[in-house]
């Protein structure tokens, strides 16, 4: 090292990089003290010779400087050659040796809060024109800093230089990559904009609105041009003013000068209109809008839009543009702000503007389907334009704007301002004809992807100020995976620091006995005093953090934001400067170079505006948030499905010997592995497979698989695993009820006290016919069938047992017919019906909310009044009183128990317990899981909305607004990839994750939808996980990786998770059922009617049973559009009598046409139900008889009677001994595969014939479960 130092010192002295002096002391005459004087590159009178050096010399000098400076001490005692220098344990080094192991997220969190140069600027924001809301102090400081960045034209220090103190107390500035030393820090031009990256949920939207309104009167300047001046003009000036600049512009626009005799004399109004629109900061005229409109001056003022001309560069002689007549391109100067918003957040911005701004603020919401206004309209009529750029990104033909003809439109009556109606160019967006004052990109982390639409379209626009608004500027700030994967970039900085030893792992200093004699006479400039026996060895420190490929990708995204989007001049002029001086020093193979982390921090601080979280918490305290993981066991039938899946994975692992391409965990089968893991996660909620997870084939091939494994000499552990797999597959294959459950993907629910014929008629497939009526091990039904059955019984509370059976068979036949007609599965038809009903309910609710808002505005209704609608209650059974006649229903004792999904049972219990007081957000990465939750919520009659892939984008916005403003919908089902970012859902205070989320930052983003500013309730978050499965292992691994500085790898790439998945562990029987439901099927109806009605109700039920027990041929019409009578307010119940006819009410009708007979129930009568009502106009129960009925309604109808809508028709000639109804079971449609695709189809005979020919190992071909 001594020889290398001397060579470095000699070279640097020779080429005027340093100067050196030396001395010795009597007490330490064996040592030489050398003073190093750095020669700055900006030394006065050097005449540039220190900057313009030979490239080879400069490159060699950089390496020598890094070697030399790494060993220099900055201790005064060392400078004065004092003997006690060597006894210092922590000497101050010129290049610090303390490791800066901060990650990008930690650097981001350590950025200082903004400090405004003038406190008056922040105080002035206490009252902003047009802003209804009041700002917190930290919000005022952020907005004041944004205004300061926009308005300041002063230069700023170059962030690539770090400040280094000298021994004389003077500061010098070092560029660590080039090793350039300067006496003064170079200054660079600022950028008018930056990145607003306040914490999630701290009010970034209102900060942007405050910035817009605080600078509402400011006008942008024309773009700079070195070739010619660009004066600000206006339409009235171009046609009336004789100033040279206007005359020249008129000449360029019209192809020649204007004759003197046609120049009009401008009036005072013309001059004032021109001055008000062309001043850099116009005085506030908005408060005089009504007065100016009354004088017919407001429209001329608004139509006199300032603009400037852009001339096209002269085309080459071969260009076809020389043949086209060219005109200057007109660019309108607008004081408006263009806010680019993701399409799913447009409606939320609309609500935020209405919430925070007064009606004086004019804004335009531009959806994808809306007509794009003209450039003149965008520039003059709006203060804020909210839009997405996807549609306009294809209209970028700027050249066509140079061929537009000059405006010759007539004047506005009473003024000399033209009423311009010139059409725009179809291939050029109106956004390209406006010089925008400001562009704001919400959720602007997408601008970090250079291929994104924003970064391709925005360079064609003219914008003075640009802002990115996001809580996650890059992936590592919160761990979000944004943009495309980026390959490693080449390093241009070299690895000279590695030669110094600063990038090696720190080692303990050697003992004095190990020192060589040559060191004793060397030059002493390094840290350790090798000759002082009192010197303590340097302690070992933490290992140096190595920046990964993901870190480099995030640095590249930050570079794109700074250089490409914001256009910071220092980095925009040299596209590789950020990579050379920031990224490469950080991503060196042995760790970051000295000062590299500090340079990155200074670069981020130059453009970012954010407060530290502790500074925000000092002013605003969010409600507490508790997060708990709920561990539970699987239901026995769900456990069989899960073990069947694991059996397939285990057989594949053993039979493929975990090596060849058939192995599921082979590196080339990553896609199949990810799908298999997703299906296992789905199975932990509930899943079904129409191929039964291939358990038949595993069970049939069991002995062959074992023989082949033993013949190969596989370890005994694999033999045991294979035997377990075969045993679990055999157990599932022999369970008839489990096999019946696999036909349909819905979650079955337990039912009790349900008559077997009704149970069999209303159930799907073989769920009701697998066993006899009495020996069923478990009675289960799907939720949607239970809902249909309940709706029928509630509509027709006196429906008989036989009619219920007939209705069930009719529903099965109708379902099969619909599936056959649409060539779709049962699930697809049900999903379509569910979506249609949900959209209809939301449309009705929005109408109610709009009506309520109008009445509140007009003073008719008080704020907060709930409209009386069918949807105005969170739970249907308590909203409407149920008929007491349900006490006589055959279903009165039926109860609904828990489902076969323990997670679903827990969710339903939570919702039932808290839905009246709190709203829920339920997240899942699987749309199928959310569909299962939706079925359960329908069964317990709690209104919900969905935010998933299946919902159209425009409807998603409606659903968000409805959920936030309506008390009807209590649960929002959210697909994680669509709903975890950007939404404001503070009406919810309970959050449930249906499965653990591997990426903690994605989970945090989802929680922030509710835990943000404006939230008043404590937030309760619960994550559901199954014990002893990959979900529990995932939670343990997440805890282990908590605080890791590197980006968390994908689930299947993490070493711990991969080990767990490669060695599947089958689930054993659990201790018992968890979170079981027990609900009355028909709801809590009044089963104890009043005394005067009790006899009538019992007699009516007896009459029905006796009358309908006769075996008479009858043509029956079943109508399902009826509504139950309501006790507290009788209403018209449209009941067409067939089976449910009550007593003598069915007397003969003298009319041929159907007749309504008034029957009054409950409060409408004092006597028996069949006596006339004492009221003048009793509410009618619609009793429609068959045509030409003579006698009782239960007698046979004439042949000519053809009631409409007959579902069950009897033959005219009925054998008394034959059953009344004779039907066949509707065939069940085949289910679509939704996930793992094993070897489909199993033929035992074919398997036996091909057993001897099978040589390839048993393998999983895909992963297609339901």
TrEMBL record:
Gene3D superfamilies: P-loop containing nucleotide triphosphate hydrolases (3.40.50.300), Tandem AAA-ATPase domain (3.40.50.10810). It holds the Pfam family Helicase_C. Residues 527-537 have a biased composition (Acidic residues). Residues 899-1056 form the Helicase C-terminal domain. The keyword Coiled coil does not apply. InterPro entries: Helicase_C-like, P-loop_NTPase, SNF2-like_sf, SNF2/RAD54-like_C, SNF2_N, SNF2_RAD54_helicase_TF. Residues 508-542, 1080-1109, 1245-1266 are annotated as: Disordered. Residues 1245-1258 have a biased composition (Basic and acidic residues). PROSITE patterns: HELICASE_CTER. GO terms for molecular function: ATP binding; ATP-dependent activity, acting on DNA; hydrolase activity. The keyword ATP-binding applies. Keywords: ATP-binding, Hydrolase, Nucleotide-binding, Signal. One of its GO terms (cellular component) is nucleus. GO terms for biological process: DNA repair. Residues 1-20 form the signal peptide. This is Helicase C-terminal domain-containing protein. It comes from Coniophora puteana (strain RWD-64-598) (Brown rot fungus).
